[in-house]
Amino acid sequence: MKKLDRKKIYIYQNDVPKSYEARQQFTDEVTKRGYTIVDSYDETVGLITCIGGDGTFLRLVHACDFPTSPIIGINTGHLGFFQEILPEDISGFLDSYEKQEYTLQSIWPIDAIIDTVNGTYQLRGVNEIVIRGPHTHLTHLGIEIDGSLVQEFYGDGLLVSTSMGSTAYNYALGGAIIPPQLDALQITPIAPSNTNAYRCFRSSILYPANMTMRMTPIKRSCGDTLEIIVDGFDYLYEEVQKITINRSGAGLHLVRFHDYNYWTKLKSKLL
Hints:
Layout: E1 5-13, H1 17-32, E2 36-38, E3 45-52, H2 54-63, E4 71-75, H3 90-98, E5 103-107, E6 110-116, E7 119-125, E8 128-132, E9 139-145, E10 148-161, H4 169-172, E11 184-192, E12 205-208, E13 213-217, E14 226-230, E15 233-237, E16 240-247, E17 252-256, H5 262-269
Parallel strand pairs: 1-2, 1-3, 3-4
Antiparallel strand pairs: 5-17, 6-7, 6-16, 8-10, 8-14, 9-10, 9-13, 10-11, 11-12, 13-16, 14-15
């Protein structure tokens, strides 16, 4: 890994007027303090500044191929779970950054290995990975955790979320909220079938993040095209043989103030 240059900053933002104003404010402040703003990300960047909301953060992470540099989020969006400060906090943040009065919160994405008849593909997600049939097709999947068959699922699809992603689409589906300190992944069903022919779990399954989860198309889904959605990015794969999901070994590092409290943020954003 290359050495980070703390004076080198990369800025990523969305296109709303409030974000342009925050970018100008941030740029003026760091320029006065002798920092350099670069046009593109590389591994020597000492700080990534993400201006926008949670959607902007996810686009940044995917655009920069899951960067290793610390990320500070300036919230100009709605929820802002990943973002740490507001535009009016920029000067105070830079004071703390220069004094190194902050911590780094590491969050761990998940990887999906998709084995198809035509090849093997890999996807990585921060919040979640969704597996479903195309359009309105129901999906029949065998679910294994560490080699043990858990269930033959039949329904619209399955969502696998990280602890940080538990408050996103997972929460909308009725999944559990998991604090990031809990090292777990979560499987949440999407419109599971419950008939005399098929009995599927209707609530989330939490399991240790160091275990391997595998989904295999079975019965009527054998040879089908599957739609896989990663943090809102949509992919189609034909003739899927199996999908293997593991926690990624490549973490993201978010800048947090010493008074950061997950439960306080959760209450202010959702509860």
